[in-house]
Amino acid sequence: GGLLPTLRFLVRTHGIVTGSLRGNKLEGVTLANRPDSWENPQLFSLDPYGCADFFCKLCHSELSNVYMHCDGCEELLLCDFNICVECHQAGAYRSFVQMNQLSARKLSGINHVGHCVLDRGRGCPCKNPPCKRCHKCSSCSCRCHQQFTMHQRMLSPADMENLLTRVESLVGPNQIKHAEEVQERLCSARGMTSNLFGCTTKRKRSKPSGSKSTKRSNGTKSATRSNGTKSATNETKLTTRQRAHGQDQATNEGT
Is 151:36 a contact under the CB 8 Å cutoff? Predict the structure, then answer.
């Protein structure tokens, strides 16, 4: 299918997410100042050109150019908690994920606790220390792990649009083989991608495979029935002839 269908899909999906962020439709999400590939590799903790650090922490799929980075894990745990856009949109981060290999305590300063929904500070009945970042109860009220920063791994949205324009100019009006099939596979690659980003490609309805065979079987049955009827008729005629022949022989013998 070539590069163009996949590139169009990525630019479209990333553009929708970035546009939602700029329109303040994504609560608790900020936009990184520059792509990861522009950072100083000696100071930046992630390698955007490698694959080791760019897998979703929840669904384990490889992260594309746009991904979400948990601010609470970065500041409180000094760990990288990166998830894909689909998991963030589904709210899958609102759960407990153990980040500390030595402790499974559900505290914001030890593990990722995205399930907190209460609003309690000091004097909470949980009797756990408050969060160092938001000063809420670290086990039931800390919302730090519900705040994310949207990162671009390689290119900024403007650079992605520029790349798409250059590829489209090279392809021109030429029809790319299997382009529609690639687009359909991209839309159905994940269960909620087509619903989230509005893929309009529809699958062609296949004709029921059993219709022809049913007709053929019905035809075979009717042919069998007709043959059976003919054979029964022939047997009846033969029996009648044998009886008539036997009566003629008996009459001759009697004479």
Answer: yes
